[in-house]
Amino acid sequence: MKVKVSRKAHFNAAHRLYVKDWDEATNQEVFGKCNNPHYHGHNYELVVSVLGDIDKETGYVMDMKTLKDLIKAEIEDAFDHKNLNLQVPEFANLIPTAENIAVVIWDKLRPHIEEDKKLEVILYETPRNFVTYTGP
Amino acid sequence: MKVKVSRKAHFNAAHRLYVKDWDEATNQEVFGKCNNPHYHGHNYELVVSVLGDIDKETGYVMDMKTLKDLIKAEIEDAFDHKNLNLQVPEFANLIPTAENIAVVIWDKLRPHIEEDKKLEVILYETPRNFVTYTGP
Amino acid sequence: MKVKVSRKAHFNAAHRLYVKDWDEATNQEVFGKCNNPHYHGHNYELVVSVLGDIDKETGYVMDMKTLKDLIKAEIEDAFDHKNLNLQVPEFANLIPTAENIAVVIWDKLRPHIEEDKKLEVILYETPRNFVTYTGP
Amino acid sequence: MKVKVSRKAHFNAAHRLYVKDWDEATNQEVFGKCNNPHYHGHNYELVVSVLGDIDKETGYVMDMKTLKDLIKAEIEDAFDHKNLNLQVPEFANLIPTAENIAVVIWDKLRPHIEEDKKLEVILYETPRNFVTYTGP
Amino acid sequence: MKVKVSRKAHFNAAHRLYVKDWDEATNQEVFGKCNNPHYHGHNYELVVSVLGDIDKETGYVMDMKTLKDLIKAEIEDAFDHKNLNLQVPEFANLIPTAENIAVVIWDKLRPHIEEDKKLEVILYETPRNFVTYTGP
Amino acid sequence: MKVKVSRKAHFNAAHRLYVKDWDEATNQEVFGKCNNPHYHGHNYELVVSVLGDIDKETGYVMDMKTLKDLIKAEIEDAFDHKNLNLQVPEFANLIPTAENIAVVIWDKLRPHIEEDKKLEVILYETPRNFVTYTGP
Predict the structure, then answer these.
(1) How do beta strands B82-83 and B118-126 pair?
(2) Is B81 left (phi over 0), alpha (psi -120 to 50) or beta?
(3) Are D49 and D124 in contact (CB under 8 A)?
(4) DSSP secondary-structure letter at F127?
């Protein structure tokens, strides 16, 4: 009996969307307001889900407390109140779009989830824009 | 790396559920209050999702601004503050249930989404009733 | 010790905003899309609050179940799945704007609330537009 | 054209997480605060979804009113304002974790859904913790 | 320039509503399902607000971090995952209705808020039932 | 009959909390993570309310469309996707705490609201932190 367990978390961060190799006019055309060189920011809402078998004894797929602590250690402590472009190494050469942030979060969490379980990441950049990544 | 990007939108509309070929008693039995001949209405909340590969250069699956504009042009401008039965041609001979509205929205958006990407439509008729359509 | 107790409810309805004595051009200028002669509609969310002293014995200001039943009998049964202009007598000669609907709801509930208690009505026409009325 | 229709419901209940065969220290280590012998409780939010073909005539996959009544009869009447461990027979020998509650809900609803339709249950234990079960 | 700053928090608890001096029939008549002798429970959502002058230097009425820590120490640590009737001393002889819980929370927080500031407590027992208390 | 009409809006921005005249250690002690010199950011949710008499003819206190346009022109266009410290003149010498931002928004909107009407601003910095300002 496979069940998906999900835990919500959140972090606040600043970012800027632009391609270093492009000139300013092209960046402005593609990224518009998100290309502001002084940065803007978001309250990112995160939903991390793990799909696996229910443990017969505990009734858990995964202890939600463990999942909560893992998200805090790997994601919140690394991203919260940070400038993603300048202070999070994964984005030194990767545009911090919602899509790319979701992939980075998935890659950071995957090694900590048991191999036979599946992992899904949903990231809300705003209450109206969000992305979902379930792995390669 | 396939990611699903989602955008929320909304429109307000009036509708009535009834089958023209049925007598009033049958319509009342099947559709109850929704068969009110003077219409009733809803704030429809819409979530449109597109699944595809992240563009290596822009970090986007699809520019959310483009998706937002597409939903406005194709759906909001056509449905918002309208009587679905009387003023939206797709429902001239189709009951505007949440299920059928979702299919109509999907059909209207599909030609505007790149062929190698998948499209999903979620439509909330009320905060407690909603439907999901991912294509035929 | 005065405490305010609040109960949420909801109803779906169709309406049209226009002044019968005005010509069509003026109605269109003032009410825009809301003047659609074929009606449009909303999921109205309602919050009814009663402020009063806590009953020492029961610990209640007012039994929430009683308040819930009152809202159902007086408001939901009268407004839900209705065309406000055509089927709710209070709006035969009163434009069903959110402001006026809130006042009508307050007036309908007030006689059923104990005299020494205060009544407040909040009405959401959409998740982004709402009104509050606390009496004359 | 397969569409998934979803209906939200809710119930409030008390529960305790512990394994009868374990000693107190082990229960405390595994379940922490959830092992409180005097119980604690939650507002459970439930989303039940049914996936199937749209009926050509009615435009419905399943009448939402029927689904609402089914959830009330099978789940809300059995679980609401109850102590899950002591008053719901399914948990006499099954720990009422969110995972197990979701499976029990699915098992109780499945016989009432037409065989060619699929059933999904999402259960929120808190706004930040939830589980999804789609069957064995 | 007086500004009201608000912080949301939450706790989960079990409770039972009944008057010890009443017989079972009267308790059942007044409190219905809430009188379940085996308890039921809720996810309580709490909004604590402090009204006061903005500090010219820091731009704060009160550091939200301080308010968050205060709510945790005084309320969450005392109430979370507890049986309010049996494990929270304030309710040994006081029915834990939402009204009374809000008053108890206000009384516990008031001594920790500067005297010239006002305190408000909003407590959601469910998403549809909530109470507000601003002091005697 | 005075009614309060409310309109929600939102903007995304980056900011940093620090006092220019303080040394780094003091800023860090008072503002903690919010003192990040590379900025962080938020999705600010804004609720603007106007209290006044209902116009007998239109049924409006104030046309919500007018209020929406006013918020866009005065607040969203000035703050959205901006760095509040560097790009919004009002914060050149004022710390952009939620409290101060709410006061600045109130001051910018007040001249555009009719004199006999009252104005209220609620600003959510995160879903758990928000402030309310009703004027001096």
Answers:
(1) unpaired
(2) left
(3) no
(4) T
Average pLDDT across chain F, whole number: 97
Contacting D residues, span 33-92, partner chain A, CB-CB under 8 Å: none
Q: What was the pLDDT predicted at A9?
A: 98
Chains with ≥3 CB–CB distances under 8 Å to C: B, E, F
What residue spans define the domains of chain F? 2-133
The DSSP bridge partners found for residue C49 are: C6, C120
Nearest CA-CA partner of B85 in D63, C14, C88: C14
Can you read off the two tokens belonging to residue A12? 């606040």
Three-state secondary structure call for residue A130: strand
Please state the φ and ψ torsions of residue A16, each to the nearest 5 degrees. Answer: -145, 140
Residue C99: which of F5, F9, F49 has the nearest Cβ? F5
* Token pair in block for residue B58: 């822009």
- Tens of pLDDT, residues D32-57: 999 999 999 999 999 999 999 999 99
Using CA atoms, how far apart are residues C37 and B87, in angstroms rounded to an integer?
A: 11
The question of whether C15 is a catalytic residue gets the answer: no
Q: Is A115 a catalytic residue?
A: no
Question: Residue ranges of the alpha helices (H) in chain A?
Answer: 24-31, 64-71, 77-79, 84-87, 98-109
C-beta separation of A8 from D124 below 8 A = no
Q: How far, in Å, CA of A97 to CA of C26, rounded? A: 46
Q: What is the pLDDT along chain A (136 residues), one digit of tens a residue?
A: 899 999 999 999 999 999 999 999 999 999 999 999 999 999 999 999 999 999 999 999 999 999 999 999 999 999 999 999 999 999 999 999 999 999 999 999 999 999 999 999 999 999 999 999 999 9
Confirm if E58 and F97 have CB atoms less than 8 A apart: yes
Residue A69 tokens read as: 């602590």
Between chain A and chain F, the number of residue pairs with CB atoms below 8 A apart is 77
H-helix or E-strand spanning residue E69: helix E64-71
Question: Any CB–CB contact under 8 A between D123 and chain A?
Answer: no
> Considering only CB atoms, which chain E residues are within 8 Å of C6?
129-132
- At E17-30, the pLDDT tens digits run 999 999 999 999 99
Helix or strand (DSSP H, E) at D85: helix D84-87
Please provide residue C30's backbone torsions phi and psi, each rounded to the nearest 5 degrees.
-80, -45
Residues in A closer than 8 angstroms to B6, CB to CB, are: 129-132
Q: Residue C28 has what pLDDT?
A: 96
Contact residues on chain E for F127, CB-CB shorter than 8 A? 8
Is the confidence at residue F21, as pLDDT, over 90?
Answer: yes
Name the residue in chain B with its Cα closest to that of A95. B59
Is residue A26 within 8 A of residue A9, CB to CB? The reply is no
Residue B104 CB neighbours (<10 A): 22
Domain with residues A2-133, CATH architecture: 2-Layer Sandwich (3.30)
pLDDT greater than 90 at residue C1: no
**pLDDT at residue F75 in the model:** 98
pTM for the full predicted model: 0.96
For residue B106, what are the contacts with CB-CB under 8 A and spacing of at least 6? B119, B121, B133, B135
Measured from the Cβ of residue E26, the count of other Cβ atoms closer than 10 Å reads 13
> Residues near B68 by Cβ (< 8 Å), separated by ≥ 6?
B7, B9
Position F24 confidence tier, pLDDT thresholds 50, 70, 90? very high
Has E76 been annotated as catalytic? no
Distance CA F97, CA F78 (A): 17
**pLDDT of amino acid A1:** 87
Residue located via tokens 């003032």: C30
Disruptive mutation site among C54, C55, C71 for chain E (greatest number of E CBs within 10 Å):
C54
Compute the average pLDDT of residues C33-38.
Answer: 97
Chain C / chain E CB contacts < 8 angstroms: 52
Nearest one of C69, C131, C83 to C106, comparing CA atoms: C131
Cβ-Cβ contacts under 8 Å, F98 against chain E? 5
